[in-house]
Amino acid sequence: MIKRELYLEQLRPFIDKPLIKVLTGIRRSGKSAILMMLKGELTQRGISDKNIIYINFESMEYSDIENAKNLYSFVKAKITNKHKYYIFLDEIQEVKSWEKAINSFFVDFNADIYITGSNSKLLSSELATYIVGRYIEINVTPLSFAENLEFKKILTGTDITDLQKEFIRFIRLGGFPILHTAEYSHEDAYKIIKDIYASAILRDIVQRNRIRNIELLEKIVKYVFENIGNMFSAKKVADYFKNQQRKVDIETVYNYLEALEAAFIIYRVPRYDLRGKDVLQTNEKYLMGDQGLKYAVLGYKDRDISGILENIVFLELKRRGYLVYVGKFGNKEIDFVAEKREQKVYVQVAYKLAEASTVEREFGALLGIRDHYPKYVVTMEDFWQDNIEGIKHKNLAEFLLMDDY
Q1: Is the pLDDT score of 142 beyond 70?
Q2: How far is residue 379's CA from residue 377's CA, in Å, rounded to a whole number?
Q3: Which domains does the chain have, with CATH numbers?
């Protein structure tokens, strides 16, 4: 098992702390593997296996644990000594009213608790109701480009010699860990991603939200995927369907978009007015939980590359702990304004700076911002355009591997 230090480093400071550790993320992003890695580290620290309780609720072994009462009884029966117990509950949302059991563990037992789930409503509703202020969330995404290279190196046993070739492969396949544990053709990889997508749609969206119009849900997904990198609103989606002679209520579009967000199929990126210092309420961008989803659902098209590159940069900024916005500066758009505590970074993403108008557009959007924070234009070029007034031009693959921005 290949360690994902990015997440283990975030978890380690909270081991044995009186907080419930919550790992959320799209299905098959690696949450279960991270739990198993942490379990292994605890064993190495001398924690007895008897004091580690691990339950994966997707396993038939635990199918009888249907509700909070069953879960509480099962765990209580496992606690046989006065030492601290480490409780790992994987895909906890499969248990009805599970949050009541978690709260009781926290109160009744000497326990350190870790849970995973494939739906963000774990935090926004059930979990927050019972243990508000007593949990920390770590969002797990599919592999970053750096992790992809690490997996490839371990899989092949050789050093990476052609960075750009590996980046092209990463663009096409995405980052779901299973795709990087063996050599898959694009066709086979997309079959795997389609299965992951179908599972997330059915179990984390349709069943959880009791959605009846699955056809409409899938059409909205396709609309979002086809417009990755573009700004639009729920009204624009509804208007699109109206033009297709299909009446769709705006509230339904909102609800379906929120359900897709909750399952980490998509992320909503709000716009931020840099002059007015306000988050705007219209025309957000929606990006995907992994770039491979688009190709698996819609097929591969070269012309989609610009939106895909934006998606990759967005996920990298999010992994690094930034809050990410689309920037509005006068009549110009900045692809990403990313903030983390006192840090801020501006990023423009383009395929190539092949024409003077493209250079003007990408650099010009940043030139008017007169602050000291880093500003980047990142592209697929193998050669660098000269930096312009402190705005740095970086190859995208190299940008993703930088230690800090």
Answers
A1: yes
A2: 7
A3: 5-139 (3.40.50.300), 301-405 (3.40.1350.10)
